[in-house]
Design brief:
By secondary structure, the protein is an all-alpha fold. The protein is built from three helices and no strands. α1 (2-22) crosses α2 (24-36). The protein starts with a helix and ends with a helix.
Length: 64
């Protein structure tokens, strides 16, 4: 379990770092737009990402 969690965190960091590494101007523009959003909009994005991640984990458990 510990190795899987560490691998998941490492993959998250790789994916999170890829956009600013490869397209810093795009990353800056997306970040600028995020800071202009209202709290409710940001919460909705967070909820959507959380639900999508949970759905992927549930689907993955069925495939194994």
């Amino acid at each position: 379990m510990g190795n899987t969690l560490l691998a998941a965190i490492a993959l998250m960091l790789i994916l999170e770092g890829a956009v600013p590494l490869l397209a810093p101007a795009l990353w800056r523009e997306v970040f600028r737009r995020l800071t202009a959003m209202r709290d409710g909009q940001i919460r909705y994005l967070g909820l959507s990402a959380t639900l999508a991640g949970a759905a992927l984990l549930i689907l993955q458990s069925f495939w194994n």
